[in-house]
Each structure stands twice: as structure tokens, then as C-alpha cells.
Design goal:
Layout lengths: L21 E3 L5 E9 L2 H10 L9 H17 L7 H14 L2 E9 L3 E6 L8 E6 L7 E6 L2 H6 L3 E5 L4 E5 L13 E5 L12 H7 L5 E2 L2 E2 H18 L7 E5 L2 E5 L14
Antiparallel strand pairs: 1-2, 2-3, 3-4, 4-8, 5-6, 5-7, 8-9, 10-11, 12-13
Helix pairs in contact: 1-2, 2-3
Length: 268
């Protein structure tokens, strides 16, 4: 079992103390990797501190982990045992409190790995599987921001994590087979389901061209955006200046005292 993070921080500082995964030991051991930004991080941090939870950094990732830990503690009640039901309740309540875009994977001691995505689907998250390399007749699972990470590690893509959905993978015991093969899905938050709003910059800038996000090949999306932009430029009354730009892999040239030439894909 492993969890990792390779992106620079977009909130807090560039300090090594904010390197992920973030770790929390109460009410149970948890390590969190988070991609995104919480827009209400300051408010949540103040609530955590007032509830006697200590924060070591200004990272919104640690704040998110603190919120999840607090909700885990509340869901535990007097049982004292973290199980699937406790995780589902804690993630559901965490989604209700956190605002912004986030894709999260959390390694939970003695439970498994839970991955969840914000209710608006702003940040990408997908998961896949392969025949286990270590457990006879078992299945290995993976969750990642981009499908290429799944591909290069020899896994097969299963699906994107739906907005507001939680994917929990739990250990399998050969002597006690599970009908769910260790994969548990739960729709935690549906209030924003009609407001699916994936981040444009994932397609424009962040993602690798050969990734598939939300069922769309990133390279194809860039080509189509370039085509639409080229059509706008061709039909616009922009200032007559000499210019050239690459749009979706096709060079569009504007000559002095003339309009943009017609792109080849617009020819009849």
C-alpha cells in the first residue's frame, strides 16, 4: 500500500513542512494527499483550532485532513473502531464543510485507502485495477489525478471518480473472499450534481496530452479548443497586424492589412 504526491503547493508556503502526504494520528493514523484549493480554508482552520486541534502549517491540505479527522472522531462515537461506516459518514460530513476544488486520497490505518472528489468535479480523479502482483486471486487498485499514471503502472482504467463520490479500497484476505473484491463505492454528496464544473486549466495546461479526464482525451480537447479559437479569429475584425500563433497544432497566420487566412479544417 502506498500514497504519494508530486505537485507543488498552491496554498500555504513552499516549506518542506508542507510536503505531502500530510499525517494525522488522532483518532487514527491517516496520511493524506490532496490536489486542489479550499476557498474556506481560513474559516475551517479557525474552527479546528477553537476545537483544540493543532495545525502545524498554513496548508489547506492539513486543514482538510484536520476536518476529516474531526469528523472521523465524531462518527466514532463510543465504538472506538474505525470501519467502513465511520469512513463513509466522515467523508460525507467533510464534503459538506469544505468548499472549493479537491481530489483526495487518504491512507487510513487498519482500514484501507479512501479517495474522494469535490461535489462539483472541479479537480480530476480516476481509479483503476489489475490482477494482484502479491495476492493470489487478488486485485490491486490505484487512484490518481490522471489516467496516464494508471496506464504506465500496468493498471486498467475503471472510471473517473464521480463528483461527490467516495471510492474505498480495503485489504482482501484469501481465506475470506469479498463479493465486492475490496472495492466500495459510495455517493456522499449529490447536491451539486447538476453543477458539474471541471477546471478548464486541467485541459489547457495541467494535464498530460495523453490523459483521459471525464471521458475526454486531453489532446483532443486542446485541438477542438484551438479550432474554435481559430474560427473566432478568422471571422473577427481584429486589428490588422502581422502575427502567428499555434492553435490546436495548426499554425494560424495573420498578414498585414488582411484577415486571418481560412484554417484548413474550415475549407469546403
Amino acid at each position: 500500500v502506498g500514497i504519494g504526491h508530486v505537485r507543488y503547493p498552491t496554498a500555504g508556503t513552499a516549506s518542506a513542512h508542507e510536503a505531502q502526504p500530510m499525517y494525522n494520528s488522532y483518532p487514527c493514523g491517516m496520511a493524506l494527499a490532496h490536489n486542489g484549493n479550499l476557498t474556506n480554508a481560513q474559516q475551517l482552520a479557525e474552527q479546528l483550532v477553537s476545537g483544540l486541534r493543532h495545525l502545524n502549517t498554513s496548508s489547506d491540505s492539513e486543514t482538510l485532513l484536520g476536518v476529516l479527522a474531526a469528523e472521523m472522531q465524531a462518527a466514532l462515537g463510543h465504538s472506538g473502531k474505525v470501519d467502513v461506516g465511520v469512513v463513509v459518514q466522515a467523508v460525507t460530513e467533510t464534503m459538506k464543510k469544505c468548499r472549493g476544488g479537491y481530489a483526495v486520497s487518504v491512507l487510513i490505518h487498519d482500514v484501507g485507502v479512501v479517495s474522494f472528489r469535490d461535489p462539483w468535479g472541479i479537480r480530476p480523479l480516476c481509479y483503476g485495477s489489475r490482477t494482484s502482483h502479491s495476492l493470489p486471486e487478488g486485485v490491486d487498485y490505484i487512484a490518481a489525478s490522471e489516467s496516464v499514471a494508471i496506464d504506465v503502472l500496468g493498471f486498467d482504467m475503471i472510471s473517473d471518480v464521480a463528483p461527490g463520490e467516495m471510492v474505498l479500497t480495503v485489504p482482501m484476505d484469501p481465506s475470506h473472499p469479498r463479493q465486492d473484491c475490496g472495492l466500495i463505492l459510495h455517493q456522499c454528496q449529490t447536491a451539486a450534481a447538476s453543477l458539474f464544473a471541471p477546471c478548464l486549466f486541467e485541459y489547457v495546461y495541467f494535464a498530460r496530452p495523453d490523459s483521459v479526464m471525464n471521458g475526454v482525451l486531453v489532446h483532443e480537447s486542446r485541438e477542438k479548443m484551438g479550432q474554435k479559437m481559430a474560427c473566432l479569429l478568422y471571422t473577427s475584425d481584429a486589428a490588422d497586424e502581422e502575427d502567428s500563433v499555434d492553435l490546436g497544432g495548426r499554425r494560424i497566420i495573420k498578414k498585414k492589412k488582411s484577415k486571418y487566412r481560412q484554417p484548413s479544417f474550415m475549407s469546403t
